[in-house]
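Structural prep section.
Before we set up the soaks we want a predicted structure of the protein with zinc ion in place, mainly to decide which crystallisation condition to try first. Input record follows.
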Amino acid sequence: MCVLEIQIYCPHCYSYSVVKNGKKVTGQQNFKCKQCGKQFLHEYLYWGADPANKRLMSRMLVRGSGVSDIAHVLGVSQVCVLRHLQRLAGQAGAAVSKGPYDRLQIDELWSYVGNKKRKRWFVYAYCPEGKEIVAMVCGSRSAATVRKLCRKLEGLQVNWFCTDKWRAFAKVLPYEKHLIGKRFTKAIEGVNTALRLRNRRMNRKTTCFSKQEANHMYAMNITISYFNHHTF
Ligand SMILES: [Zn+2]
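Run finished without errors. Recording the tokens verbatim:
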């Protein structure tokens, strides 16, 4: 007979400080981590529930995979991936810094939601000093979307808003604090490229886009949280 001893560790924080914590209705032993307080099983009957797979789902999303790719590679349903993304977006961290900002660069990026005739504009503010995205909104290509972003920036101390020549920016942003021109938005142009690369929905000519605006926003929240904090 061959006896194999297995040391159980927490799949969330990798701590070995774990204790037994009753049994599941399936009869499986349940464990609890003394370090992070989370419960887990040694083996999951359903792959989608395994914390290691959930982590993979998050990482694949911010490394250019779409929902159907993730579902196919991990052998779980698309509904399971979408549910996980929704939960993760709810926990996505906001920008770390609260200002004051000398310069915030603002730019817009388009992608599709629903079908290829429906372009949605992602407008966001980036702080080049802190290298983080401070606020973002999604909407039509109009001044109303820029106003929505400005409402999110209310209360922050900003000396200058730097943008390209899009008229909606000039219409909404305060004239005395507005710098217009490509030379003021070099850093955010680089961020545009990074976001297009990170999130499959933002690829040019992509056929992989969200069917619903809510899912689009979940994916963008997660991408930005990853961009700002680099953690999953
Ligand atoms: Zn833990």
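Observations: The first helix runs from residue 51 to 61.
Flagged for discussion at group meeting.
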